[in-house]
Structures
1.
Amino acid sequence: MSTTIQLFATCLIDTLHPAAGEAVVKVLQRVGVEVEFPQAQTCCGQPAFNAGMHAEARKMAQHTITTFEADPAPVVVPSGSCTAMLRHGYPELFADDPTWLSRAQALAARTFEFTEYLVDEMGIVDVGAYFPHKITYHPSCHLLRGIGVDRQPRALLAHVRGAELVELPAAEECCGFGGVFSVEHPEISAEMLKRKTSNIESTDAPVIVTCDTGCLLHINGGLHRQEKRPRVVHIAEILNTTLLQKPFTAENAESAEF
Amino acid sequence: MSQNPFHAHIHKAIANPVLQAALDANADRRVQARKTAFTTLEEPLEVLRQRAHSVRAETIAQLDHYLEQFIANAQANGMIVHRAANAEEAVNIVLKIAGNLPQRNTKDESVVHLRGSRPLLIAKSKTMVSEEINLNAALEAAGLTPVETDLGEYIVQLRGEKPSHIITPAVHLRREEVGETFHEKLGIPLTTDIPTLTDAARAALRQTFLEADIGLSGVNFGVAESGALCIVTNEGNGRMVTTLPPVHIALMGMERLVPTFDDLALMLSLLPRSATGQKISVYTQIIHAPRGANESDGPAERHLIILDNGRAKLRGTPLNDALLCIRCGACLNACPIFREIGGHAYVGALGEHTPYPGPIGSVISPGLFGSANFGQLAQASTLCGACKEACPVDIDLPGMLLRIRAGLDGKTGDGRRRKENTSGVGLPFSVKLGLKAFTWAAVSPGRFRLAQKLAATFGRILSPRAEQIKLPAFTGWGFSKDMVRPAAQTFRKRFKKMDNPSIGEKAQEHVGTLAGWQVKKTTPRQQDSTLVNQFESELISLSGNFTPCTTETLSDAILTLLNERGIDEIMSWNEAHLPAGLLDSLQRAGIRIGQADQPHIRAGLTGALGAAANTGTLAISSGTGRPQSVSLLPQIHIAVLNKSDIKKNLRELLQFPEIRKATSTALISGPSRTADIEMTLTIGVHGPGELHVLVTQ
């Protein structure tokens, strides 16, 4: 069985956290998926959409739709937030434009968040990961409530050998990122971030897992400012670890033995 | 920094430790209470939630029809119905009813001062519409005295503040502040004991209820099929103001309708659970008419003012679904922004107050009062979706916040009329410019790659060594966090260097499937075997008392109860509405039967129309020989209930034909209570503090 997907890496992973993108590719490859990366991709347009700038968001949406229309393969997005944008945001943007609406809906129908693709589309909960540490999970808002994906990442994490999953207190609370919000309302964002980091501290978990790079950058930036170790990782980075005691080294992934 | 009053209010709120402690306690307790309350629903929450959404959506879609039906029925029942297009009209209708319309400039003392020479006294129970039209200020300006009687509203009024939450007006205060306020305004010794504070308010307000010339209330739901007003309260003040004063005025937003009693039962299964975590509120009143010809209490006049004030024009617009709101406040409690800033911080661009804070407030304030000034509230959200998840009628609040940001909240009601020039509502020019530049780069892969390269270079200049860049506070981001340095090598570059073998065979051996992974199931709650047992346990959980008896042991049971409390005088329903011979045998044992309106009498004896087992609710309808005050004024309410009248749930209870026509029906679930001070439950506020239900075989 050979499956091919198109990876929509998201602008945040592409520009700020490429290690997560590499991990996504390696995990997918390990379970037999061929990964393509259309080089024309940029940003889904969510920042403009959330700011209420629909004209700008529409331009970016059209660019993204065109980019991924060239190939009929499913689109896998390692972000709940960007998946929600394609699934719910695009149809809203093109509600009055039947041509673009049907193109947006066609793309949305074959777009999947990374963990959703593994669990629901491929039926896989064990990707052969090994990570002998305590981990805690931050369910990002748009993943959890935007597209209703929660059991999928939890199932994948439950099958990581050696990992001890501890529940994050008030896990479902927003970290205070919210895109432009974190810049426009820095004081509120700061208070929300403080709650999130102190809940994280209360778990003693050395690693915090999330499926969204926005939350990851936000919480890590907060931890660093508080002179604590930035240690939020993308779920693909955990799923990609397969060697005892040496997490996150892609080179070692294939040599793990169970 | 910005001169916007919104930012100033946010800053002040975050810097206030008392407020922060109060808001944290509110969020933690209310959210948990709501979740716990939903475990006792008869059907899955999501089923009820979607049904409630459909009922409300259909009602709003056919609002003209239902309003017509509702008004016709209400008028046929003897209610005086007024329509107010805006706040000013609504205020003037109240003033006119009070006989004190300013332009009439009356010198006739008898009109203004119905009772003696003091200013006209208006006892108010909680109504957010009254806050919306700023009624108290108008009444005071006209020389009238409005007194808030909901404990939270009363505290806020004494302090000269506005409510900071649509359900719990004093949620921003701690007991110390309430103690100081009562010490200063009511002259009681300084205390932080919540029952003592509640008693002080009870004592102060009892006189208000008895002397008020007008009782003014809100309306939770209007029931179109019978013209009923449904009013939900816990303390009993709602019953007082709608029963004791000679005139009752109800203020209602025009969208607050449900078509039928079944729909009402559905809403009542969601509203109190969402609002306060109660299965049902203590008092759910269903009011149809003014005092009947042979009734001994109830207002002689009932007025209903139906307010538009911008609601009708929201229909059919992208903000249409804001009209589905049933004002439970769950979205406020769930909102992480509300938790940080509280209700008073939600202000317009010129510092204007809005009575509607939180997520729903950030939609309806721009919707009703204009997005020019209130549109900025919609930017104070991370779109985290906690509000939508908490909403018992599944309103897409994040979706509507986005539409306000995009300037789509067209005033004309012509659907999704685009106004691109007003996009980015509430954002500063610099942010919009940045996003325009980003768009320009992002629609071209070449420009995007160049921008990435520039960002990486800039990042290395700002932070040559460390992975994280220390941005200054003025950037917004740098206020509380550092920013990771853009990668020297982007993912798109790295991808080109990655191998792409089709399979890793070794790993595949360990691939499992979803089979065998169980979705967690909640076990359905065990129902009590019989209705009477269930009624008993629910009533007891509400701090009510349950006594099983027979017709023979009934009077002895009541006598024991009265003797234990040293009571020898009670007020009572007429003997025709009680088990035969009951009053006779009580009187033979030395109990005197006093007038129903005597406030000094400590116990009231009533029958009951029926009960709902799964919420511990009694239905008590008024009528000739069944005064409402008997179950309201005394400290102790004794009700005689026939076992066969216990129904399964509220929906079945509401099918008693009597409820659909009685002047007023009180659905009573336990003794009166409040949690308006620090959410600490206190039993016995304005209504009875003891409820005894004697169930006869």
Note: The CA atoms of residues 9 and 15 of chain A lie 10 Å apart.
2.
Amino acid sequence: MYRIASVTYQYRREMWLAAVTLFIIPLSSLAQLSDKVSKVNVGAVHPGDPLSIQVEFVSANVVDRIEIAFRQFGERDFRRVEMLVAGNSATVTIPPVFVVPPSLEYYFVLYLHGQTTTENYPIENPEQHPLSLTISEAESTKRAIVILSPEENEKVQADDVLISFSLVNDDSSINRAATKVYLDAADLSTNYVRSEDLFVIKPENVSSTLSSGPHTVRVEIFDTQGKPVDTYSWQFTVNGTSEIGLPPVSSVWKYNYNIQLETRNEDISSEVRPYNRATISANGTYNQFRLNGRVYVTNEEQDNRQPQNRFFIGGESPWFNVGYGDSYPIFPDLIMNGRRVRGFNGKLTFGKFNLDVTTGNIIRRIESTVFKTFPESTLAVEQANDPTGAFGLYDPTTNPRLWAKYNYGTFNRTLFAIRPSFGKREESHIGFSYLKSTDDIGSIRFGIKPQENVVLGSDLVLTLDRRNIEITGQGAFSATNKDITNGSFSDSLIDILYKDYDESYRNRIRNIRDAFSGIITVNEHLTPLGVKNLPTLAYEGGLSLNYFNNALRFTYLRHGEGYESFGQSFLRTDVRGYNISDRIRLANNQWFLSAGFERLKDNTAETKATTTTGTTGNVSLSYFSRSSAPNVTLSYLHASNVNERPITDSLYAIDDRTDRVLVQLGKEFTFGARHTTLLSVSTSMRDDRSYRDLDTRNTTVMLSAISTFTIPLQTVTSLTINSSKFVSSFSSAPVGGPASLTYTTLSTTALYRLMEDRLQLSGSFSPTFGDIQRVLVDATAQYYVMKNLSVRSQLSLYLNQKFYQFPGSTNDVIWSLILRADV
Amino acid sequence: MKYRQRIHTNILVLIAFTALTVLSFGFRPENGTLALVTKIVQEVMKKSASNEWSKATSGDMLIVGDQVRTGKQSLAVIKFMDRSIVRVREQSELTISASSQTGGMVKIIQLSKGSFGFDVKKQQNDRFRLTSPTSVASIRGTRGKLSGGSGNDTLVVTEGLVNLKNNVSTRDIDVPAGFIGFSNQDGSISSRKATEQELADANNAALGGSSNELNLELRNSKGDKKELKIRYKQ
């Protein structure tokens, strides 16, 4: 009887396997439509922990650069950070300070390859209708693993030590087979037995290595890309000794590395592009020292683009952290954040004194392109033929002299930043920052307006009463020279440029030049040249209070209109105002009420004809059920931008209001399998009362279900209905006339593991109907030839029938093959 | 042409949805690991659907339908994935299984003979059900001991609240902490306050170790007496 049941079960498994492979379903479960972005992956969300977000592109060659714009609950402005592009994906880690309940809103800005314009994702109205991530405080207590044995701080006999834990994270981006388990310094990863999410190391594989006393189990979890996702450790104590007594650790050196080789072929709009990439990453630890390195090489590397290859090698210990290669150093927000630096990056941490230093290139030189050379005599003719072209003296030694028509190149831009700080990094401290960045004039032959930038700043963190009170502040002053071609002023040039001023003023200019030309080039292109209204001063101050189940935060900021740091390209300037938000936990952490208010004004230097005031108020109520009732989130946002000009002023008047309502219902339940369902309804309306009347309206309804079966199969099914009304500039509608866009996307995805997890099959099928008509089909198979060696193949089909008012059927085909070894 | 394309697309969507719907109902959580044997003392045997009785070892995984049996002066500690613990006392036999119900999963421990202590963690959606041929006890987060399995069952609850139902009479009662419930073959079901001895025994069964009590009588210079009770585990 048991045999029959077993055969029946096997038959059913095979039937479903056949069904799954037949209806290959996408993993792009979010069902947001774009022909550039195929998928957005969000890592595990824990309040106060860094948050990893990854964007996968339809085509590897689609973007030169991508930025994530994100904001916390209660904020109007989005902060921007550049993402690290590697192959057909880009990743970013949101710093922990921004990962706070109840939500984080974000969208992406894509700088398209070969184009001067940008595109957003989601495409329509991303600022009014961004992607939203619910950050649940209730979830924060969840660990990604459940420790089964030994319990934390448990006392056990040496012969009874059974190590067991279970991964509870359903995230399909986790590679369970790559999980590493260490007992003290010994790597026991080859000793465990795994059944789906359960890991067991039996006593016979453990106890002979144990002496009496405390011991530590450490579990390292990796994603499918081989990157460490999380590390957990816990301690237990052994009573009595085992037969051997001492841990037979062969070496205190521990290391691992992985190699990934990828070949990819894209056939998009009948244009075929092959890509070949290789990634090698390695890390090793020796007691408290850690070494890590990474090299990424691609055939996309070209002299006329910014670097596509990446490399990094670094070392860490509790008191130092140094590295050379491509990195994204983090200094205070006003100084540097989100910029790639190729060079040296180091940190010293001595407790009461710390030092951060970075130096390297942030822009690589791209040599100018000479189209043609010609004798000086024909210069006038050439200029007449191309009045917008760039012309320059090519060879002054010839007779006649040779001139050239060319494309401007890009200067090599170097950056140096240093920040000594006093006090513990995670506690109260004060820091002082200095940043200097300069274009190397001699790096290319023909360039335009090389620049220079210096920033001086200070930052302060004060934590009191076990961090229940936190006071933060930072201020910075910048100076930027927009053209250093001719260096600092000469005395004679000062006399010429300021001939209308008296001698004492010219002397003052000379004194300023003499005082500061050692730091920055001083000439007429320097900002600021005056101190009225301090246009290049920026500062921010904040107070956070955590009492009586409240998390209250108040921030005041002022960023001058001329403030600029080459290490921080995304700071909004010319703004001042305040933000206040509060989050209250009620009814034993089942209810969360959040409210925020922000008022910001521009015209900080009082040089504009009018001042615009932006006001944002929002409120959100969340209920996290501990019974069978669903989790519920309701939120409302009202934002307005108004200036003092009368509405009849067709050029400068601004008067718009936006209202947004979001309702989300989520429920987990078991019915044949474990299901996580989500219903989300979001609607926003922008009423532009100015002469332009750029009203927009958008409604999105999404229903999704993630089902986890024990066999083990995971499916994601979603239905998204999107309807927008806006003012269109498409040719078939009157320019500036109203237009609408409505489409429905159905997305189904399945991930199936079989052969004891050696083979993973996944597929997706995602048709879109309405004003956009497209079908996405995706199939992926990953096979572990050995425990540490896998082969992954992916095929994606894009069957495009219609994109808004542009009919035309095209089929795009992308396939890739990845060989990966983890050691 | 467009009409045909649309029909094809609709058919594909329909097939995909049908497949997923069938998938959703086609599988039950019948073969997932439910629990783990974390400790063995003396003679403990286990039996799965496809195998006969064999010696159990620490670290053995238990799936739906697995049975565990203990010999004389033996003990098995079983830990579930939610960290709930069942301590199978000597000369006992039980089967573990699970079933789905709306809102969560029900983990079932069926006692055939002997007794076991339980320390069940509070669950959001899942439930535990302790059964015997005579009784069913539904719990969500509690501690105690169930004995019987062969006609007359006793349930001692040291923490939380348990609903105890008699399968013969279908009558049920709530057994709160500090009480003992009786469910018998004749359909009768009742409860009373548990004695200190019964509670101590249930606590030992649920938490492990044997608890001892040392009573000291202290007397000061004036002759006043005070009693000091020290409880300790071995």
Note: Chain A has four helices and 48 strands.
3.
Amino acid sequence: MDILWQRLIKSLLIAVTVVVALVILYFVALDYLYVVLGGVLVGGLYALAALGLALVFGVMKILNLAHGSMMVLGAYLSFWFFTLYGIDPFISVVLVIPILFLLGFAIEYFLMDKVATLTAHQPVLVAFGLMVVLESLFMLLWTADPRGLVLPYSGARLTVGGLHISLTRFVACVLSVVGLVCLAIIMNRTLIGRAIQAVSQDFKAACFVGINARRMYQLAFGIGAAFAGFAGSLISVIYAFEPTSGLAFVIKALAVIVLAGSGRISGLIIAGVVLGIIESVGAMIIGGGFKDAISFAVFLLVLLLKPEGLFGRRG
Amino acid sequence: MLEVRSLNVYYGNIQVLYDVSFKVEKNELVALIGSNAAGKTTLLDTIIGWLHPKSGSITFNGFRIDHLPPHKVVELGVSIVPEGRMLFPALTVLENLMLGAFTRSARKKIQENLEKVFEIFPALKERKQQLAGTLSGGEQQMLAIGRALMANPTLLLLDEPSQGLAPIIVTKIFSLIKELNNWVTILMVEQNAYKALKVASRVYILENGRIVREGESQELVKDDGIRKAYLGV
Amino acid sequence: MISIGLIILGVLFAAPTYVQINYFFHFVIILCIYITLSVSWNIVGGYAGQCNFAHSAFFGAGAYTTALLWNAGLLPYQAMIMGAFTSALLAILITPCFRLRGSYFVLGTMSLSEILRIVMLNWRVSGGASGIHLPVPEQFTITTYYYVAVVLTAFTVVATWFVVKGKLGLAFRAIRDNEVAAESLGVNPLFYKVISLVLSAFFAGLIGGFYSYYVLFIEPNNAFSVFWTAIPLFATILGGAGTMVGPIVGAVIYVGLTELTAGLGVLSLLILGIVLIAIVIIAPTGLVGLASRYAYGRRTGEKTVQRGVPTFIRSWLITYHKVGRESMTYFASNRKEKSFMIGETKNKY
């Protein structure tokens, strides 16, 4: 109970600090407030993107390089549903998630399963090959042109106390948080979730209690892919994307993970928001051309200087 | 109930078990005694399906189980308390026990088994919300046994239940094992030959991957060679 | 093996007097570029066991330095050597990356080359996104390029051969196979990793410089493309990492394949990805490994390896059809045993 209270107080403190900072910004520099808010809204998405990757890494110890390409696939699927059938991306998410889940499941079942337990190099190479395959498929199916979705209500704004917030970004952020909470519930409250945790803690022991550990790997990979698709279709509403966007996406997700240090969901959300703010403020200061380089640099610097992340303990 | 016939097991190219054969009848408590690196853990790992033999067969209740993966073997009613306990340290005691009942057949009897385990190990009930990694050694061993019982086994494999425990607790654990034998058949692997001979009804002795002796424990206790080699008398 | 190499080299040197088809020259030049890149990648990726994804950064750095210095008035060969040294310097600068292990090293080096690419895109001095145009050198014919390419490649291969057969190569392999054990025997892992990276970068920079001469126009998205990492990696894995012949064979196959599938466009990329995945899964030791196992099996008559390729595919198929079902067949069981003993050896960082 004590630990719970401590954590609660800690997160309350953080929240209060953030709110105070925002209020100060509101009175001192409104421009910056918009930049920071933009970062916060995108941060939720980053956390969602990182979540699937963190799950796969936590359970299988595989860094899935193809995660970003799976996100791009989700984005393309939303794009397809919208342009071909006119289904709103916020609704077609319901279709994208199971499709990506099956894809992830199949990838683990047929490919990763063969190399997941050998050396550290092989899974990365397979994932890299997967990334190449996915990217070339995107080019074949949807050409190399950057795509973006323009919804009827793309320009709509919410106005709260004199502040204008883009409606789509706000909805995307809220949906991301919903997704994060859902996964937290799946992992901590259901038998399958606990079994996946058990496999990540001790593979052999998990086998011994009767868990089909390989099936858990497949499920974890599938869930990871499903969340990649989820994040991807939310991203399709906000950003333009092209077949090769995957690498930038996966690095952003990784930057969030190394910032968070642990796979805990609260940590991921805070790290996502921090990265979003760093990125938008950084882009404002040193120029938009460097925007993508920022997340790469954050990733590298955190990894080299503070490998335990912001909230992690190094075992 | 369990019948192992001329089992040969390899790690890569290195042979660990040579032509091992033995039998466990229903409601027996059989002990396998052997020194370090005699192949005891390997044998249990092979029975549970973690390793697969190169040749030979393992039959459980008439089923061949030598090429089944562990989760299938557990489903059939074999359950293991692994060496070094292998709990899930970051999960609570209760979650550990729940995971023990992961197989479909065990899930149906989960409530009943949980009550039974708490009855046998009241200490676990008090600590059910505690993380498994924070328990003491003896409690961890109890949790490991409890977790194995949650799978509703008919055959319980115990791998070194006395390992790393204080002598008082070892005595306690062994009397518990004796008690457990009223419900399930037990195959136990032990370095502590003295204790094992005391509780077990039949004993096999494993040396360098081969079974060198077998017999009723009362007989073996009297055997001079055994007394010298294993009991230090 | 050495005699075969010398014969090939002799043929390549004599060829221009008999064959005068531009396509042939072009083909060999491209081939040489890829062979050099693969052989140099193999020093780090194959021998020292560090899956380096910054190769494109070295290639690009070499290309850019050469181009800039040539425009500044240096002689071509001087510019190229300077380019190679710049790459080597860059390799020393990214030493901190060796604090990362396994997958993190891959991503760390990959993000480094991405950062470089983005910086070059936005940097005025190097022409930014519009790149650098080089003047067409009047005195160079395609034959000149041809000879330079062949000499550079031969130099790289021979130098690499001396390195990996010597003490250095032994140290590299020791680190790859067991870093802790190597360290306990007095091999300083960091030192040798850096050495391997510097050597690899040197050759990559050299061939990068040659590339900028050959195409006479470079821009960041091209010179720093992930492509320059992916292709050598692919070729090395395909041929067999950690062998001398592997990368060369792989590069030849790759260039042959791309020339054959040149009309297919993106589809060739797709094929490439699929082949990479298949090779990693079915024959992780590459074609050279497969061939030597086959030869070994023929010689000793050992049952487990003698049947070569078909067995590999067959056992693979059987493994994944039977997993999770009741029975696992014979040769699948060996594989499974390995895979159930997971985790202990894998590095988190």
Note: The CA atoms of residues 2 and 24 of chain B lie 5 Å apart.
4.
Amino acid sequence: MAGGRERVLRRRIGSIQNTKKITRAMELIAATRVVKARQLAWAARPYAEQITLVIENLAAGGAEVDHPLLREAERVERVGVIVIASDRGLAGPYNSSVIRAAERQVQNARAEGADYALIVVGKKARDYFAFRRYAIESYTTGISDKPAYDDARVLAETVADMFIGGRVDRVELVYTEFLSLGSQRVTVRRFLPLESTETIATKGRGRAEATAAFEFEPSPEGVLEALLPRYVEARLFGALLEAAASEHANRQRAMKAATDNAEELITKLSREMNRARQDAITTEIMEIVGGAEALGEDAETEELASVGAGDRSPNSRES
Amino acid sequence: MTFQVELVSPEGITYSGEAEMVVARTVDGGDIAFQPGHVPFIGVLAIWSVEVIRPDGGRDTFAVHRGFVQVAGTKVSILSDVSEAAAEIDVDRARAALSVDGDDPQEAEARSRAEVRLRVAGTEA
């Protein structure tokens, strides 16, 4: 019956409306989180810049040390891959693209004849690699949403220890760079060994007071030794913050698309429902009219019959 | 004469202001005071306090557990990932940390951090 179809459509529209409410709420939450994550990333900048500046000044002062974090391995036997993904889904292509880039790094390492060590941040990446039976060296969860410096410090220490202990000979960092609200890019960066201090210095803004001769305490080498681990932490922290901002931006976009789709679907289904209702009404009217006409026809034939009878009666009277 | 002092942490610039003098302690150089016009200087800070003497004579004290000081031109930057202002310090927690016995370097470091916290908060252990 036509009324049944209308009821089915009405129920579907109701359920889509509920979904739309949820996606809309998620979109709004993600929007505020993007703003906060960007502020955090922004606030972290002076520290990273200052540390780079100190390294620039050290390089200008001619300090060069043989620090384990700078040591380039002669043969790379094991490549560490840090992958920063998120704990929660519904963020569009955010997780899948960063995971795919990390998987490519692992395959590259294999192609070079080297082993790999996965350092995973975020439940989604863990699920992916665990399902495909990759060996996961280290797994961190609960920090990708809103990373704190302490989280970065702990993770950086783990990775630095692996590197210094010779368990990995090179470390690549795979994360999503936050370029702007509308554009994020998966990036692969060499994490360890660090570039030489000169390279770090030339990549900096070149603000070093080259003319100023700095005094170092305890010594240029001593300062550099204390500074490099902090530099590693600051870099990882920066990457975590950018990844968090990217995650929220991606989620906002994905949820906006979902809300728009829901709206479109609701319009389409409402039209279909209205048509079904009108069809039902039309059918009903037709039935009524048909019924009435049928009744009317009966009445007419009766009339005719009675007229016929009337015609006949004079005859009968005649006879 | 004054110069600019900034306390920079990974979470942002936590303190910024004018100062007449900054007193800090480097890893094995002992206490060092900076005044405007100091030669450019980069030092590794010991677990100790940093004192900022403001132009109005008041002073702000921070517990700095790890960090660097850079003096360049008319600016002093203190870079630290673990620093606390006097008002932020949890005195009870610091006292509790101080009473933990143990000989391994981590526990010794925790004790020295607690000592600095109490010193900065103005309550001697």
Note: Residues 220-318 of chain A form the longest helix (99 residues).
